[in-house]
Amino acid sequence: MKAFPSFSFLKHHQINRCILQFQTNHEFLSVSRQHLLSKRSVNTTSSFKNNITCQQPDADVTSRGSKSRVFPRLQNVTIDRSQDVFQKNRKQAERLASEYKHLLNESLAGGGSRSVERHTKFHRKLLARERVKQVLDDDSSFFELLQIAGMGMEYGSIPQAGILSGIGRVHGIECLVLANDATVKGGSIFPISVKKQLRLQEIALQNRLPCIYLVDSGGAFLPLQSEIFPDKEQGGRVFYNIANMASQSIPQISVVLGHCTAGGAYMPTMSNEVVIVKRIGAIFLGGPPLVKAALGEIVSAEELGGAALHSSMSGCSDHYADTEDEAFSITRDIVATLNLAPCENTSVSPPPYYDPSELLGLIPEENQHAMDPYKIIARITDDSRFQEFKKRYGTGLVTGFSHINSHLVGIIASNGELSDTAATKGCHFVQLCCERDIPLVFLQNTSSMTSSGQTPPSGEYSLYMSSKIKSHAQMLASVSCATVPKITIITGNAFGQDHYLMGGRAVGPNFVFCWPNAKVGAMDAGEILQAMKQDVNMDEETEKKMRGKLEKQSSAVYASSRLWNDGIIMPEDTRQVISRCLAITQRNITKQQKPLLRM
């Protein structure tokens, strides 16, 4: 008796079913389209996966009374390119972008030409980027993350923290890929490398992404072992995460392309499936040098823990590959067996009505907290349409609904001081989005304490601050406990407690990106200096050095190199980045089970 129907029968059966399904869907879509054209209705399903408008771009319709569009188009958001201030702002933005791209190219170069030559010619291995390219369906689908991690560290620059990483598609399935770059310090693991691995695993867990580890590591950098080994959020946490993700049915796949020594040996042996490559792959707790030192025996890496041993005797590996090419082919086949649905193609959506490239001229050289959030929203949303929520209340925060590449989103944008009423409004809106399963997009540009300009009279200050603290606590709680995806773009300042309320790293957003002009810190550098000078006398030279240090430590490059965000993006690419993040996050949304608290 046959366990399964024959291939020919199965194929014939599937073809008939597909034809029937196509005919049914075609009839349904035809009727639906006529219904939409006649009734001007929209898809109002609560599922984020299906939150896609069923409309085609049409003529410009801006009046509130028209029913041919879901939301009104934003008005009064035109930017005059001919103004001197626009040109000045644009030059400043281009300068910052150029500086970042120079550092990015340095990071992407890995360990340099000599290390690359040794890796490819002497060790006869593929480079990390070539390996990732062979695993993925299409190199263009690779959404690279944490690109300048490790640059300018106290112990020297570690390009990309020694790990090439990002999200790409394998058989249409979004997967998180981590590839050790052995050209960087021989693939040694530094403290920043561990931090990067943990952040990537957090992304995988939060978005339920299968993990593919392309392992080629030299083990921990022992002079810094105290910052790598003992604590909770250090090296051992990587293995804890592998075990817990596997227990939650998030696949873990390891491809052994180099040595997995000491603790690194647990990465493949704890994975769901393992591929190991002949000659170059090896797994052992102690390598040949340690064996010689302890026992006086000379043994090769292949004999001690090579592909043949682990594939035929220990069982630590599930698949034996003669070459790297074969290993990547096997890896792709493993992903095909995961029984996961491929990503759905996003429907065609209208681009922003206003040119996104104008965002470069919107960023002021000074006082960047004064950026108009409506002008940003108009240049990242479908056809620049936005349904504002509580427009007249708590105006220090802009909240409302829009579409980004057909994904329905709730947008929360800074617009000056985050007052008590603004925080109350933000709390209400966050809970509203959670109730409706609508992802949140934060456009963060907080005001500094001295720039808000809304300090009340001295007699009312304590009452004002008490009210503000309560409202801030409510919004912080709602953002922290939000059950929908959160995507944060730092467009300007990220100062003080407002940073947390606006989707900062601490409240667990799915992704955080920043523009090159972003500043991240407890306070503005000038405010910190003012506070310090109250307790410490500073001469002019000391103050100048301290200001330079504070400004450097609050820069976007400093923040990104230390993994305070997931990368720096160009302002004109903001829409594309958010769209990709939304497509990635749609796999994991939990229904809100709590009542809506309006105030």
TrEMBL record:
Where does the CoA carboxyltransferase N-terminal domain lie?
Answer: 93-350
Which PROSITE patterns does the UniProt entry name for this protein?
Answer: COA_CT_CTER, COA_CT_NTER
* Residues annotated as domain CoA carboxyltransferase C-terminal: 352-599
One Pfam match, given by its short name, reads Carboxyl_trans
The record's listing under SUPFAM superfamilies reads: ClpP/crotonase
Q: Name one GO cellular component term.
A: mitochondrion
Q: Which reaction does it catalyse?
A: 3-methylbut-2-enoyl-CoA + hydrogencarbonate + ATP = 3-methyl-(2E)-glutaconyl-CoA + ADP + phosphate + H(+)
Q: Which InterPro entries match?
A: AcCoA_carboxyl_beta, ClpP/crotonase-like_dom_sf, COA_CT_C, COA_CT_N, MCCB/AccD1-like
Q: Which EC number(s) are documented for this chain? A: 6.4.1.4
Protein name listed in UniProt? methylcrotonoyl-CoA carboxylase
